[in-house]
User: Which sequence fits this backbone?
């Protein structure tokens, strides 16, 4: 049985969800961002317990197919960005088609109708949040960050960064308070 879960955005989320399933004594066959496959069917009572425990720590079970698809898209994008290996010729449409095996226009339409942001805008917002994170860690230069996130130039990255945040990357680094959005709220 597959159970889809909203707001799983990192490895710690997987760990937290695994703990909940273990606590309810539901055996997991596999677990990925946004999706748990159980070894067998889950009773209604166990599902209710899982939903309650998920809710207590900021997760939510997704029941309808459109929202399951949207969560899958979000998780694919977040995972791709976190790999820090995006080619400058990367095409979001080709990537999603190869992973989901559905027409991009229908993916885009479903996403936009439910999220009030286009797929491309979501992708850019996620990349900008990753740039903020990398700037704060101070491990990479802006040129290296641009290369890892598929920007053709530092100027392109800086332009998107300023349009999204209102600051240049350099100005952002100098701020005392860094306004970053949690990935599950973008």
Assistant:
């Amino acid at each position: 049985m597959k159970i889809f879960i909203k707001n799983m955005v990192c490895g710690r989320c997987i760990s937290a969800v695994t703990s909940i399933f273990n606590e309810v004594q539901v055996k997991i066959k596999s677990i990925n961002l946004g999706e748990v496959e159980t070894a067998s069917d889950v009773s209604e009572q166990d599902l209710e317990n899982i939903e309650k425990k998920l809710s207590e720590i900021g997760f939510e079970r997704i029941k309808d197919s459109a929202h399951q698809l949207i969560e899958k898209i979000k998780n694919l994008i977040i995972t791709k960005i976190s790999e820090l290996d995006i080619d400058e010729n990367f095409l979001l449409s080709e990537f999603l088609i190869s992973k989901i095996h559905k027409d991009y226009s229908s993916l885009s339409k479903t996403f936009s109708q439910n999220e009030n942001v286009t797929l491309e805008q979501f992708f850019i917002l996620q990349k900008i949040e990753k740039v903020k994170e990398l700037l704060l860690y101070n491990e990479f230069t802006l040129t290296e960050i641009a290369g890892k996130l598929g920007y053709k130039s530092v100027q392109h990255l800086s332009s998107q960064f300023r349009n999204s945040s209102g600051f240049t990357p350099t100005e952002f680094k100098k701020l005392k308070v860094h306004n970053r959005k949690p990935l599950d709220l973008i």
Notes: Residues 162 and 171 are 10 Å apart (CA to CA). The first helix runs from residue 11 to 23. The mean pLDDT is 92.
